[in-house]
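Worked example

This section walks through a single chain of length 87. The input is the sequence exactly as stored; nothing has been trimmed or padded.
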Amino acid sequence: MISGGRAEAGIIYVGSSDEGELTINGGILKSASGIIGRYSGAIGRVTVTGSGSAWTIDYSYLGYLEVGFSGQGTLTIEKGGTVKANG
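Given that input, the structure is written out below as tokens.
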């Protein structure tokens, strides 16, 4: 969970081979790419909620967002949260 702060990462995997969850509530995450539900059988859930909450995916040669790559992926954006992907 990212709450009230800022975090930076390379590639974010949520639910890579099992089950995973990420909530951004009042914080900001910047990453090179993001994959939610990577492999078959995996379950990934990401929620970006609340005004000022953001996930920015920005990298010159990656910069992609995959939801349900081979597994199950859910991305919920609510209550003023934002997600932006630049590739």
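What to look for: The chain has one domain: 6-86.
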